[in-house]
Amino acid sequence: MVPLIGRIIGGFEGAHEAAAILSELFRRGRWLLKCIHSDMRIPMSRRIVADVAPLARVFKALGDETRIRIVALLSHGELCVCHVEEALGLSQPNASRQLGVLHRAGVVERRRVGSWVYFKLARQSDPASREQLDRLARGFAGEEPLRRDVARLLASRGPGACK
Asked: Which pTM does this prediction carry?
């Protein structure tokens, strides 16, 4: 990728350095907002860059049906891992792994009380990420699969069972 970008910005002073910076920006999910012209002499570090990484991180985390169902359940409030297991019919390792993916992506936050770990949706600082998670929660609120998940949750454990 670097040689191709180097050819595109070939007239640019320090074209190899600029190509390396561009490659890194593309790898991290960032996009340049300004066109690159061969006669530009502006250092790449001063160009305007739109950071799409937070939104991409959220979409990657939601790239699994189970994680979408977990986020939909958590839109109703904080839940213990055992609640998620029962509501979705998951094993403890699978529920923990899926919640870990969501936690690393910043979609959920956790707190430990004794041996119990509780999860809730994290407040999103990025407006686009916040909007997409809100839409997901609202969109799934009336869907049959989520209603069944909530019914299983209430029948098996109840919201205060782990306290």
From this structure: 0.65
